[in-house]
Amino acid sequence: MNDPLGALGGAMSAFFANAVVQLILYAAFFYMILLWITAAYWAFRDMRDRTENPVLPFLATGLIIMFLPFFFPLGVVVYRVVRPPERLGDVYERNLAEEALLAEVEAVKTCRSCDRRVDAEWIICPWCRQRLNRVCPNCERLVGLDWSLCAWCGKDFEKPVVEQVLGTAPAVSRAPIQAPAISGGSVRGATPRPAGAMSPGEPFAGR
């Protein structure tokens, strides 16, 4: 009764000296160590899923380990504040969704003049009469206005028609024309003049 602090100290010593209490304390200590290591590994994997920088996952692990086994929850709170808000998988999925939406918008063909939706097989816009496509004169299929040649038959639109015809026409061989040889006032190989026929320079004599 005269020494209450001594009696309390003796009771506490007897309590912690109990084998069951010591076993519970050891189990709690190892459990905290396990949570500490697990939190550090979780921070490493979580940061690796959120960034492509190979150094940041190790920095996140060091942040958790720095707070020791008894204060690591504070390290987890700090990590959750400074970590990137999105995972790389979420960023990739959002980018794919944006690209798919952009491709879908680009697939919808519109008139360059009035910006109204038109069909891909139309030749002229029915609202503003803007020319949309043209017909290939060779295969009669629709081709784009900016095409330099037909993708279906290979007709070259930039090459003139006359040049195409001349390029495909067969070459005509031209043999040199030999002049008749003149010997002694007569032309060899010339057709003899019938009797009574006048030469071109002979005057006409009437009968």
Description:
By secondary structure, the protein is mostly helical. Among the domains are: 75 residues; 51 residues, no CATH class. It has six helices and four strands. The strands form two sheets. It has a two-stranded antiparallel sheet with strand order 1-2. A two-stranded antiparallel sheet has the order 3-4. A hairpin with a 2-residue loop joins strand 3 and strand 4. The protein is rod-shaped, with a radius of gyration of 51 Å. The termini are far apart. The C terminus is likely disordered.
**Chain-averaged pLDDT:** 78
In terms of structural class, how would the helical and strand content be classed? mainly alpha
Strand order of the largest sheet: 1-2
H/E series, N to C?
HHHHHEEHEE
Overall shape: rod-shaped
Low-confidence stretches: 182-191, 194-207
* Helix percentage range: 40-55%
Distance between the termini: 188 Å
